[in-house]
Amino acid sequence: MIPVIPNVLTVAGSDSGGGAGIQADLKTMLALGVHGMSVITAVTAQNSLGVQGAWELPVEAVRAQYRAVVDDIGVQAVKTGMLSSAPLVEAVAELLADTDAPVVVDPVGVSKHGDPLLAAEALDSVRTRLLPAATVATPNLDEVAQLTGVQVEDEDGMRRAAGAVLEFGPRWALIKGGHFPGDAVDLLTDGAEEYWLRAPRLDNRHTHGTGCTLASAIASGLAKGLAVPEAVRAAKEYVTGAIAAGFALGAGIGPVDHGWRFR
């Protein structure tokens, strides 16, 4: 039974600049009317110019946070983000396997500024342990290349990429084509059904945190009982509005506006 206010858990890293990571996830959840909870996996020193440093939390600290929340409060959906090492990926995958809730996996590989956030030796753990636990996996084109070796240059390439991601075991793959010129096009598929989601290209470079925001919005929809295609459509609409309202922060790339519906 879904509570009046569903509970959504994010398992991700902290962004000290507030635009991505745990901070973006919790803002998104609040904006979409669910109760957000967090398991912090890493702390980053980060601003609008990039990531200046990152410190991973011990596996036992991550496991303790997760069990404290799930065992007492319960969850209706889980979203994963930055899991920087193989031991963290494997520990979180083990926890997810014991949780009866939909899971959105954002396989974070690099930051918006190109800073690496996933150790190369963790890629196999993401493929074999984390993706099989996913209800929806949400890689962007760079992450698709990291995970599958598929270089996407057109919409047919997105289909090939989706098929390659689905081979690792998630129920649905959402291939994010936001790096293409023209409309922002994403492909959602489970291998049988196929949905193309298009939004107009926005003239706004302040897009820090879009991936985290989208995955958290999908998890929020799933927690409310939406089917995957409806949850993804609603999340795409929310993120498109947040990008349109994105604002300058510091001297670099600013964040999307998670509270745009309340302005």
TrEMBL record:
Domain Pyridoxamine kinase/Phosphomethylpyrimidine kinase: 15-257
CDD domains: HMPP_kinase (cd01169)
UniProt keyword list: Kinase, Thiamine biosynthesis, Transferase
UniProt GO molecular function: hydroxymethylpyrimidine kinase activity; phosphomethylpyrimidine kinase activity
Catalyzed reactions per annotation: 4-amino-5-hydroxymethyl-2-methylpyrimidine + ATP = 4-amino-2-methyl-5-(phosphooxymethyl)pyrimidine + ADP + H(+); 4-amino-2-methyl-5-(phosphooxymethyl)pyrimidine + ATP = 4-amino-2-methyl-5-(diphosphooxymethyl)pyrimidine + ADP
Entry protein name: Bifunctional hydroxymethylpyrimidine kinase/phosphomethylpyrimidine kinase
Pathway the protein contributes to: Cofactor biosynthesis; thiamine diphosphate biosynthesis; 4-amino-2-methyl-5-diphosphomethylpyrimidine from 5-amino-1-(5-phospho-D-ribosyl)imidazole: step 3/3
Known EC number: 2.7.1.49, 2.7.4.7
Pfam families per record: Phos_pyr_kin
